[in-house]
Design goal:
309 residues; alpha+beta; 7 helices; 8 strands; 30% helix; globular; binds 2-acetamido-2-deoxy-beta-D-glucopyranose; signal
């Protein structure tokens, strides 16, 4: 009977597209995202969906143990560069923030040209150093601002010669087009991007914004929220395949879906009702706790007085 229950949960999980690695390997502490809309294609309850966008992307997925292997099964030319890049910040996790630990940690590698333009633009913006003005000893000074997002996506050049090692990420293009030095400019066709899948969740709407009916809203990351709220963008990686490593394949695809939502009148009414109910319950709970404390105190004092008598 118990076996049957486990089996039915498993079958349900497969149908619902559950990533079982979450339970088997665990999730990094920093991963704060969860699926923000139902997985059966229905709209989030209490919200109007104004528009939806989706896109499917081709990538390759490696384990860190592949770094030392030659291409195409490994990433040998970039080995030191990728190790250095990953060491710059905590591992953001794979899909759903899963951490397979140590040499089994997964990284995604894509042709840079396969990355949608708004994502490329965001990555390059992040990589530029940001300065802030501070006052030191009464003097105004510009200090480089710590920017952890800079290390979410690593851009590397493809090697031009055999056995060429690529140890550094590509510097972002100057904002001023005239300042681009053609001798050192690397075309996007000649670049790859390396990231932990968990990094993608930071900017999911940008993967599907371009050309969608709500391109403007989806390009505005301040509207992108972890859960449905009025006037927000929600997004999720609704599907991803695994590389067929037993067949020496590294290819995967992943699908991103995003939507723009506003709270419906009905949704707002029921939210306000629940919030009120919740406040009342909490107030009652606090009152009961207070009465309990006073009762204990009274009993203690009465007990002490009795003892003294
Ligand atoms: C890359 O880094 C490795 C390890 O630090 C070093 O041995 C190698 O010479 C470097 N290659 C280049 C081209 O800088
Ligand atoms: C982005 O969205 C926020 C929140 O809705 C809004 O205040 C801001 O004006 C928007 N920015 C742009 C450039 O549209």
């Amino acid at each position: 009977m118990k076996k049957l229950a486990v089996l039915s949960v498993f079958i349900w999980g497969v149908l619902a597209g559950i990533n079982w690695d979450i339970y088997e390997h665990g999730v990094v502490d920093t991963f704060r995202w969860s699926r923000p809309f139902p997985d059966d294609g229905t709209d989030p309850g209490g919200f109007h969906v104004h528009c939806k966008a989706e896109g499917t992307f081709h990538a390759k997925m490696y384990k860190l143990s592949d770094l030392i292997e030659p291409e195409p099964l490994g990433l040998q030319p970039w080995r030191f560069g990728i190790e250095e890049f990953l060491a710059r910040r905590g591992y953001p996790g794979s899909w759903d923030g899963v951490d397979h630990k140590d040499q089994n940690r997964e990284i995604v590698v894509m042709e840079y040209v396969d990355v949608p333009e708004p994502v490329r633009h965001w990555i390059e913006e992040q990589q530029r150093d940001v300065f802030e003005e501070t006052i030191e000893n009464g003097q105004k000074v510009m200090r480089k601002k710590r920017n952890d997002r800079k290390w979410l996506f690593g851009i590397f050049a493809k090697p031009k010669r055999e056995n060429q090692q690529i140890n550094d990420t590509v510097a972002p293009k100057p904002t001023d087009a005239a300042a681009v030095d053609p001798a050192h400019d690397i075309k996007d066709e000649d670049k790859i991007v390396v990231f932990a899948a968990g990094a993608a969740y930071e900017i999911l709407p940008l993967w599907v914004s371009k050309g969608s009916k709500c391109e403007r809203a989806m390009s505005n990351l301040t509207k992108y929220k972890h859960q449905a709220e009025d006037d927000t963008i929600l997004a999720w990686v609704t599907d991803h395949t695994k590389p067929k490593r037993d067949l020496d394949k590294r290819d995967i695809t992943f699908k991103v879906e995003a939507m723009e939502v506003t709270e419906s009148e009905e949704g707002k009414r029921s939210r306000l009702m629940w919030e009120k109910l919740h406040r009342t319950l909490r107030r009652n709970e606090r009152r009961m706790q207070k009465e309990e404390r006073m009762k204990v105190r009274r009993e203690l004092t009465e007990g002490r007085i009795k003892d003294e008598l």
